[in-house]
Design brief:
The protein is α/β, with parallel strands linked by helices. The protein is built from eleven helices and ten strands. It has one domain: HUPs (Rossmann fold), CATH 3.40.50.620. It binds glutamic acid (GLU).
Amino acid sequence: MHTEPAFRFAPSPNGELHLGHAYSVLVNRGMAREAGGRFLLRIEDIDQARCTREYERQIAEDLIFLGVDWDAAPRRQSEHFADYAAALEALCDAELIYPGFMSRGEIRTFAHRYEADEGEAWPRDPDGAPLYPALDRDLSSRRREQKMRDGERFAWRLNTAKAVASLGTLTFEETGLAADEGGGEVVARPLEWGDVVLGRMETPTSYHLSVVVDDALQGITHVVRGRDLFPATSIHRLLQALLGLPVPRYHHHELILGPDGRKLSKSAGDTAIRALREAGLGAEDIRRMVGLPQGPAARSVSRGSSARR
Ligand code: GLU
């Protein structure tokens, strides 16, 4: 059992870190320090088609530049597929997952057709994607196995309604949002996500599954991340309950938005930390740009010398 506070920063090396990540990691590191906890780094690189070692190297460089250090060697998800496969198998044994044969394109087409025919909206998840129609949720095992033998592509999907029905109300503690913004003791609403993907043919995991397994394996007690991931916490909470994993506390901080008022993206160009660093800015400039007070490192540096690094 891990009782020592442990925090983590979990970037995906599929692009450069930008000001939004800088804010996230600095808030996270600051909270870990304040709690006297460990600060761990996790490289979320299960998407091997988009993640690269070069981006991973740049992430480490950016963090060092920002004055962020981490305890222990980073956990690279692509090296731990066996852990996720074991969790997936446990859910399979409990008959809580099934192979869903509809592709993303087919789901979109289904939703559009439904909307045209029925004149009402097909439900969407909190990210705006149409919910899985789940037409193949109740296929007979013979039919299912036949399709798999025929090489039809599929993804392992959670039977969310069944999973929810097997458990009572689930809650988690949220400290990043005020009570009137939905913070405090939050009731998880996993049904909003429908039958989420937990594993793929080539990769025995998905973002939701590996994040939950890793938070437990790394002994994470405090998850600090952007508000865009607040809704996903409902699915994470459900998976923790199904897999018998401890529940960390959550802190979903506000997002740094671009001049157009939208979330920064990985192709954000001039907000990339590397570009700012190469333009001669220092870590303190970045802190200022994201609205954070001067850091402890800079305070001691500026006491010793007035020169800008
Ligand atoms: N890998 C995710 C990202 O880069 C973060 C996941 C998390 O913090 O739970 O957005």
